[in-house]
Design a protein that fits this description.
mainly alpha, 293 residues, 15 helices, 0% strand, single chain
């Protein structure tokens, strides 16, 4: 019998091979990882509605079928050549997809598991954090979930295809001030802020470079959090004893317009609730109410 984690991982592996032409901050892998986190609130009786929505989402787009062919061809053509991470960085800055894929594939072949490539790409991607920050976090977590290193190339290629959609800014200088944990009032910043905090506290070999880019993004935004809303007792109950609150909220969002964006927001609010003091519950409550308007 297929386990819940195996089923979700299969959906993840399919999602990173989609020929997706939408905005990077709504990529299906983000939505799927958000749904996975919410489904995890009740592993014994997982939500069929949410699992079915995952399956439905990955059926919306055509898929790449040449990932392994490309990887093997590059190995045949020049794996013996010297490979530098700087070549991958330069190709990403120039936006030449063929050179990006060639450099990434060569580094993957000479590395033990290809994970070094993913970290390099994340560090590059978050130079444009507003466009690629949410994707970088959720893609990394989706790859790490029930990890299958034989599929790493598809995750790397997924991020390459999103990076190339727009020119990357140059690397930024590190800002010395530490990020603050703030629940933003602006709904457009919720998932960005959640992803930035999660990446900041992640375990990466290239954490210095990742924090350099995150520090710049944190410093570049201005947030005013409002706390003038009634506290939902359901939030307090969820923190104290768990339960299906976010599962039920997600199920009720599935058929609503722009559900993918709203699911990403809802999962971000779940993160904030877990980390917040009670004084933050009111703004979280306000954001949840707005999801259903």
């Amino acid at each position: 019998m297929e386990t819940l984690s195996k089923k979700i991982k299969l959906y993840f592996n399919e999602a990173v091979t989609l020929n997706y032409d939408g905005p990077s901050n709504k990529h299906p892998i983000i939505v799927l990882n958000a749904l996975k986190n919410i489904i995890g609130d009740n592993r014994k009786n997982p939500s069929k509605i949410l699992l079915d929505s995952m399956k439905k989402l990955i059926k919306k787009y055509p898929k790449r079928t040449d990932d392994n062919i490309l990887l093997n061809n590059i190995a045949k053509d020049g794996i013996g050549l010297t490979v530098f991470i700087s070549d991958l960085e330069d190709s990403c800055q120039s936006g030449d997809l063929q050179k990006m894929e060639n450099s990434a594939a060569k580094i993957q072949w000479v590395s033990k598991n290809g994970l070094g490539v993913l970290e390099v790409l994340i560090e590059l991607a978050i130079q444009d954090f507003s466009r690629l920050g949410i994707l970088s976090y959720h893609l990394q977590r989706a790859h790490h979930f029930d990890e299958d290193q034989s599929k790493t190339w598809s995750y790397n290629r997924c991020l390459l295809n999103e990076i190339v959609k727009a020119p990357l800014p140059q690397p930024h200088k590190k800002v010395k001030s530490l990020p603050k944990f703030i629940i933003p009032h602006e709904k457009q910043l919720l998932a960005n802020m959640a992803s930035a905090n999660r990446l900041w506290n992640g375990e990466f070999i290239r954490i210095d470079g990742i924090k350099r880019e995150l520090s710049y993004w944190f410093d570049s935004i201005h947030i005013e959090a409002e706390n003038s809303y009634n506290i939902q007792t359901e939030l307090e109950s969820y923190i104290e004893s768990g339960g299906n609150l976010f599962i039920e909220l997600a199920e009720n969002l599935i058929e609503k317009p722009d559900f993918d964006f709203k699911i990403i927001q809802l999962e971000s609010l779940r993160f904030f609730l877990d980390k917040s003091s009670k004084k933050g519950y009111s703004v979280i409550s306000k954001h949840i109410e707005e999801l259903f308007k």
